[in-house]
Amino acid sequence: MKKRKILVLNGPNLNMLGVREPEIYGRRTYRDLVGTIEAYAKERGAFVTVFQSNSEAVLVTKIQRALGIYDGIILNPAAYTHTSVALLDAIKAVAIPTVEVHLSDVSEREEFRQVSYVRLAAVKTIMGLGFDGYLRAMDFLLDDVLWDDGGDA
Ligand code: DQA
User: Do the beta carbons of residue 113 and residue 82 sit within 8 Å?
Assistant: First the structure.
């Protein structure tokens, strides 16, 4: 099977992991997260790019530029989850299968976190599993969305 290319995008303040509200997000750093994702992609035989930005515009552009290059996207839009129609439209525009991931269980948190725009275009949402959520998202893309029987698709 063709080596799959996965783009992992992380939104605002995720670069602050380890420092940021450790009681919610844990003590492991953003660097640890990137290392965990890269090691797992290697194990799974996938090509992965991990990118973080605090800017909605930069994230939108990254999604647009994924077209024709990446087979799947794992997106933790962070606070933009709850506000961004632009990210939703970008995912719809490229039509690349996208899994929404959250480290925390947003369903158990504040009312304003109950809305997710990107969920409307996501093939799956995984929340509350910490770093493991990204790995399960990769499994889902590779095993349930992008699997094939030897063809080129
Ligand atoms: C988050 C949850 C969001 O509500 C929050 O704004 C974040 C992180 C998570 O991974 O749990 O920044 O996406």
Answer: yes
Report d(CA 60, CA 39) in Å as an integer.
26
Q: Tens of pLDDT along 76-94?
A: 999 999 999 999 999 999 9
**Rounded to two decimals, what is the model's pTM?**
0.95
One-character DSSP codes across 59-92:
HHHHHHHTTTT-SEEEEE-GGGGGT-HHHHHHHH
Give kind and range of the element (H or E) at residue 48: strand 47-52
Ligand 1: residue whose CA is nearest its atom 6: 79
Q: Which residues line ligand 1 (CB under 6 A)?
A: 13, 76, 78-79, 81, 102-104, 106, 113
Q: Which domains does the chain have, with CATH numbers?
A: 5-145 (3.40.50.9100)
